[in-house]
Predict the 3D structure of the following.
Amino acid sequence: MTFKINEQVPVELLSSLRESVGWNRMEKELANTKMTSYYHIAAFEEDELIGYIDCISNGVTDAYIQDLIVKPEYQGKGIGSELMNKMINYLKDSHIYMISVIFDESLKSFYEKFGFYMMLSGQLETYKSD
């Protein structure tokens, strides 16, 4: 497995990875030139994208881990934990004050092992994507 840090990931690969975990593909959104990332890591097994984590940040006080995705057949092998540890370490080394993530309640124990705790939050989707 190799990790690519802040390298461009082809939209088709990322969209297919999203779809593999039951998320919408968001091809149009991911291809939009306005789409930026503070820091992201892609995990590859040869040419296959098997994991991805992305973060947006103001670079000083706050960072939001936007996506953590591991292809289903690779889940349970520590890849998600390795991606999360790499991201958290980078953000800590960058002296980011607060790291946030939104997750489904079924993933609470996964995120707690990294030190995340529950806070009241809300989210509103304004449209459905492909």
Summary: The beta strands are 2-5, 39-45, 48-57, 62-70, 98-101. Residues 40 and 54 are 4 Å apart (CA to CA). The radius of gyration is 14 Å.
